[in-house]
Model the fold of this input.
Amino acid sequence: GSLVARGSINASPSANVPTYVLHAELKQFNLTPLVHVVQPEAKGGTAILDARAVLTTKGLGKAIVENLDGTLDMATYGRGVGTGRLSLLDINLLSIVGKTLEPNTQSTVNCVVGVFDLGKGLMKSRALFADTTRMRLIGNLDMDLRTRKLDGGLRPYPKNVALFTIPTPVDISGTFTEPKVSLATTALPELILRYSNPYTIFLGALVETRSSKADGSDDCRAAFAKAEFARSEMGNENSDADDAGKFP
Done:
């Protein structure tokens, strides 16, 4: 894998507070050794991360998190360890979602894609997409980096329609260390349909899962490649991207 990063820090005596700017891109970065350090009990498996970040902040200590603004797109892939986590934040969420929806079934998370905007330390997703061996999920997730609280919703789409009579959405709450997942009491949590743009339409096509494979990692890679289109109102900053990352 590779890491490309550039940044700047303005900490001159004339500045009231230091400011920070970071542009970073991770391509097929192998997180497996780090996961094994964080989870010594984990054996075998792989965890790969793709990520793009454009972040700015200012201040010292807690103020760095409280003033964090920018964008962050990430995707994790692998087997056995780390995949079900939003790896940069170490939130083991998808495994809990799977156990809530299918408590008596062993389902493996293949990949997760998240497209996030950050403002004053609050991460609000443009979209969240996940592929498991038995279902796909689409929705949204807010993560407050200041309080470490979670708020979101996901709708499952079974790869075999016989698996669920009625696919029940789930509500997400709790904290980074103690996420809570429960079956939704409404037909569709508000967060699931937060945005409508070419990107969410593209993800909607991906969850039409009649012909999807048990391992849909290729579709996660496609979703990550097209993530810039989730911010269509901001213009396509990566206009020189390969044609493979563009919509027809």
User: Anything to note?
Assistant: Residues 27 and 50 are 5 Å apart (CA to CA). The longest helix spans residues 198-206. Residues 235-248 have pLDDT under 50 and may be disordered. The first strand starts at residue 2 and ends at 10.
